[in-house]
Amino acid sequence: MHTISDFRSDTVTKPTPEMYEAMARAELGDDVLGDDPTVNRLEQITADMLGKEAGLFVSSGTQGNQIGLAIHCRPGDELICEFGAHTYNNESGAMARIACAQPRPIKGKAGVMDPAEVESLIRPNNIHNPRTALVTVENTHNGAGGTIVPLENIRAIGEVAKRRNIKYHLDGARLWNAHVATGISLKEWCREFDTVSVCLSKGLCAPVGSVLCGNKSDIERARYLRKQLGGGMRQVGILAACGIISVTKMVARLAEDHANARKLAEGLAAMKGVQLDLATVQTNIVFFSLPGRERELPALIEKLQAQKVLAMALGGRVRMVTHHEVDEEDVERALMAWKTVLA
Ligand SMILES: *Cc1c(COP(=O)(O)O)cnc(C)c1O
After folding, report:
1. Mean predicted confidence (pLDDT) in 58-84
2. Closest alpha carbon to 104 in 195, 193, 166, 194
3. N or C: which end of the chain has fewer CB within 10 A?
4. Residues 164 and 269 in one domain
5. pLDDT tens digits, one per residue of 246-265
6. In contact, 179 and 185? CB cutoff 8 Å
7. E strands, 83-124, where?
């Protein structure tokens, strides 16, 4: 058990002792000149794992996604995304400002879009329409509760994108979780996509960073755009050293987070007044609501905090996320705390 049981997000994880050591020993160079061997190694390892030609170390998931969208869209283009997508809702409007594209959202089921609906929203060539440049999928889908977008669905949307000649981007910030939960290889998950962004700093514990992967020419353009955004960092191998540990050693452990989330969800679902759909608890995110008590949520979360358990109120619901720094005892403490608070 930890001093504070922090279930607000898996972004609260800190570097492991092994990462601190790797930082101290990392071989460094000027990455803007292409000279940082540690960054180059992280980019190549990640690209290889995802089955892509090249990778680009970026400062955040938001930067990886928005550069990914921007390299495929001309200003004024339209892109199709899911209604609850992180790229659309949680990246501070960067889709408009950085990617310069307008969204055409689709309401999915647990984050899963209907391929026929995607196809129906691709605009005909007509001077009055925006040009549809791209479709993007999020896997796992954060807002839907860390749900897994099935591989058949990813392939069906990929087939539409290919046939209609639009690009295909994956917000794979949480792809590691989908991989561990299903046993389906990362390469298999990524095959259809032109670009994929994966996050190092959630369950994988790196302090900073994501990697955007794709073919060589797309990543070359992405490198330009990253520099324009002020994301050209110099001896950044000090961070990439942690990322190498993330991708090579921290992925399999996500299974523990999934087991803890399941335990937490089952305990919560059994409590009176809690509405929780266990079918959506597929990885490390647990969402639930307290029907009729929505306005009390901030006060309840404050009471929970007095018992050293942190959760997050999001859109009238409670979100709790498991990660490297909450263990089984933290889960037990959280369940006890909720029982008291709800009584
Ligand atoms: C966390 C996350 C991101 C990246 O968020 P940052 O705050 O930029 O690190 C992107 N997409 C999804 C689905 C996420 O969960």
Report:
1. 98
2. 166
3. C
4. no
5. 999 999 999 999 999 999 99
6. yes
7. 102-106
